Structure formats: C-alpha cells, structure tokens
Amino acid sequence: MLNYVHSFLRWAILLAGIWAVIRSLRGVTGKTPFTAADSKAGLFFMIFCDLQLLVGLILMFVSPLAKQGFADMSVAMKTPVLRFFTVEHEVMAVIAIALVHIGKSKIKKAATDAQKHKLGLIFFGLALVIILALIPWPFREALGKGWF
C-alpha cells in the first residue's frame, strides 16, 4: 500500500516541479514580477517532496527490498538493484529535497523579482533533474517498477 502512495506522489512531485520550473523560467525570460502563484508553485513542490520523504522513510523500514539491502551492505553494493534502492535512491532524494528547501529559503530572502525567479529556476531545476534520475522508471530495465 505504501509503495503505491510513494509511486503516486512521484507524479504530484513531477507536476509541481515542472510547474515551479516553468513559472521560474517564464519569470526569467519574460522579466515578470514574482507573484503569489510563483511562490505557491515552489511551496507545492516542497510540500509534495516532504510528503514523499516521509512515506519513503517509512518504506525504508518496512520494505523487504530495503531490509535485504541494509542487512548486508557488501552484497547490496555489488547488486545494482539493491544498491539503487538502499543507497542511490535515498541519497539523491535527500539532495533533491535539500535543494528545494534551500531554493525556497533563498527566494524568500532575495531582494528583487529577477533574483527570485533566477534562484527558483536554478534550485528547482536542479532538484527536478535529480528527481528524474532517482525515479525507477519502467524503461530502466534493471530497475523498472511500472508506471504506478
């Protein structure tokens, strides 16, 4: 059940992340003012990432795959699927979520609208790229988990 929630939240994160990046990109290229909609895009991206982190932490303790990987890390590091789900996935997720939080904080402190849009584009864009890399997409043969 938790695996389905974790999988569903991935789509919410992707949509919110794309929304935040597009709003930032439009702000940078169009030199538009930073509005409440821009702030909400980043806020929803951050909220969905935080929810995903919470569900992911719970999964880390109950998932048979994670338990297997954490039981013997030397074996996990030699097995691509176990290494991905016990090390790479978690590390990239924490980095992406940290980037979203840092970006949101820096945007609040920025003095001009142009700076706010630029910071959003940089931090949210980097986080989105990392998130795209950490998802076990179905076309990644060794890791494919299905679309939902």
UniProtKB/TrEMBL annotation:
<feature type="transmembrane region" description="Helical">
    <location>
        <begin position="6"/>
        <end position="22"/>
    </location>
</feature>
<keyword id="KW-0472">Membrane</keyword>
<feature type="transmembrane region" description="Helical">
    <location>
        <begin position="121"/>
        <end position="139"/>
    </location>
</feature>
<keyword id="KW-0812">Transmembrane</keyword>
<feature type="transmembrane region" description="Helical">
    <location>
        <begin position="82"/>
        <end position="100"/>
    </location>
</feature>
<keyword id="KW-1133">Transmembrane helix</keyword>
<protein>
    <recommendedName>
        <fullName>Cytochrome B</fullName>
    </recommendedName>
</protein>
<feature type="transmembrane region" description="Helical">
    <location>
        <begin position="43"/>
        <end position="62"/>
    </location>
</feature>
